[in-house]
Amino acid sequence: MMANLMLMMNETMAKQQESLLKILEDRDVSNRRNEMVTENVVVLDRGCTQEIEQAFDSSECEEGQKVRFGSQMLSGLALTWWNVTKSTLAPMILAQLTWTSFKGKVMEKF
């Protein structure tokens, strides 16, 4: 009885894992396609920042979390730039970075 239960659990977990891998694979294909399209295009515009700021409003995002949340919505070259930039900043400086300052730096770059 216990062996059957374990077998069923393993099968269920395997199916869930397959589904998750498929979702991740589809996302990766989509991201690669989007990066190819946006590689030579302005990656972040006013419309994009407005969408991010609407997400802040709807989720009641606190000021101190906006850079962390908003940076996760970047893609392509902008995301690569942010990951490199973030790695060069001291944690104290990163913690003090405001959304307004962050948005200005991204808009200036892209």
Can you offer a commentary on this structure?
- The chain is built from six helices and no strands.
- With 110 residues, it is mainly alpha-helical.
- Mean pLDDT is 80; it is low at 37-43.
- It folds into two domains: 1-41; 44-110.
Mean pLDDT across all amino acids: 80
Number of helices: 6
Summarize the main sheet. none
Radius of gyration: 19 Å
The number of strands is 0
General shape:
elongated
The span between the termini is: 61 Å
Residue stretches low in confidence (pLDDT < 50, at least 5 long) are: 37-43
Q: Could you spell the SSE succession in H and E letters?
A: HHHHHH
Beta-strand content? under 5%
Short description:
The protein is mostly helical.
Explain the layout of strands and helices.
Layout (H helix, E strand, L loop, with lengths): L1 H37 L7 H14 L6 H6 L4 H13 L2 H6 L2 H11 L1
Features:
about 110 residues, mainly alpha
